[in-house]
Design a protein that fits this description.
This protein is α/β, with parallel strands linked by helices. The chain folds into three domains: about 180 residues, 3-Layer(aba) Sandwich (Rossmann fold), CATH 3.40.50; about 180 residues, Arc Repressor Mutant, subunit A (Orthogonal Bundle), CATH 1.10.10.10; about 120 residues, Trna Endonuclease, Chain: A, domain 1. It is about 50% helix and about 15% strand. Helix 20 links the parallel strand 10 and strand 11. Helix 14 crosses helix 15.
Length: about 500
Amino acid sequence: MSRTDVLRRTGPDTAKPAAVFDRDTEWEALTVFTRDPRPAPGLGVVTGRLRQGKTYLLEALTRSLDGFYFGAQEAAGAESLNRLGDRLALHTGTASTDRPRTWEEAVDALLALGDRRPLPVVVDEFPHLVRQCPALPSAVHGAYRRLRDEGRGNRARLLLCGSDLPVMRRLFSRPSPLHGLADLELEVRPLDFRRAAEFWGIGDPRLALRVHAIAGGTPAYRRDLVRGDAPAGPDDFDAWVCRTVLDPRTPVFWEAQHLLQEETDHPDRALCHSALAAVALGRTTAGGVAGHLDTGLADVSRCLELLRARALLSCEPDAFRPGLTRLRIAEPLLAFEHAVVWPRRSELEQEDAADVWRRARALFDTAVAAPHFAQVCREWAVGFAAPDTFGAEPFTASHGSLSRPEPGAAADAEVVVRGARTGDRPGALLSVGSACWNETMDLPHLERLRRLLDLLAARGEDTARARPACYGGAGFTPALREAEARGDVVLVGPDRLYRGR
């Protein structure tokens, strides 16, 4: 049965609640999985970093489909088992004295909820329970095996969820008992930059870029941590920064520290802070971070791998030198924290935030907004640009750099677009672009790109299809617009990023 057929048979009660913003793809995947009519128990895995709205989404699902939701906490195993039993008793209307006495009994009771109809059964933050009862994955595996051997027709749709990404990966990989059991694997990611602007209610593209450079696409930052406060317009941005992320009285001021505390172990935390600060200030290789911190490469590499495993740091190959890996802070709030706030925390607790921000404003533009603008341009090129923009379907967009560039040629290109790979060979070079956040772009920017293309061609790169592109956060001169009209360059400004292809 196709996904469309399943959706058609689920009925109007699976319509996504209006309170759930976006998440159409995730909602469809969850409802198709939940309402699958096959007479066998199903297992789904839902992951995603903290604050992305997993719990909000799953609670909405269980309310809509009259399912069961249990949110695990860090507690003793006996307390969690008692809490789960109480929730089950409340859901089924049975006496709490009948609650399960072991985790094996608890798993059986959870799956028994699906004896009569397809039913979502959600266990959120599953890793907390596994830490309390390491044998729990084996208990789940045994319960599924018994149900399938008995052919009972049970249709429980168990969703095991968690924000501890490394643990969730281990739980569903070899040699875990849960490996191969999942019918659904769903990751709840941050909103893309266009959806984030809509979520914040921001119509001005340049303002949206500034806010996204701080808050990214994490829904909880607006919904919970700034009390719904959004800039009233471009002229309110500086005041908004001062009354939210620079105000120690607001939860978002402390969020970056809390995020790192929740995602890292204590011995790693100090080095993680320092490593993130180095990356935020432009050290984009492991060696560069180690040199900046005067710390051994092995220790720094372990720290960077921890941050990467937690999806807080991205490691991306250079477009022209695949052996070179570039580091990028994946969570914008962490980049803002470590470039702007971290060095000034004592000042912010003693001085007026407006005075501190006035001194840090230029650094925000160069160290935070500019590299974030380049990343948004890369995301636009792959996710939103029309195929004819670059002459073919873009497959990757990354930063590219050349060793020993010629005088007068650009050494770097912030947005290098390639097509799909052919075997082990990189995809065809479709575009080489420069991104300038606070500088009006002119013909010299185009000339530097042309020289870079000539240099790439001399080094053996096929540049026949490559189009130069200028990504300008502050606009373009009339001369460059004329070059665009002649087809000599692709121009992408904030309006096109948010509204065009």
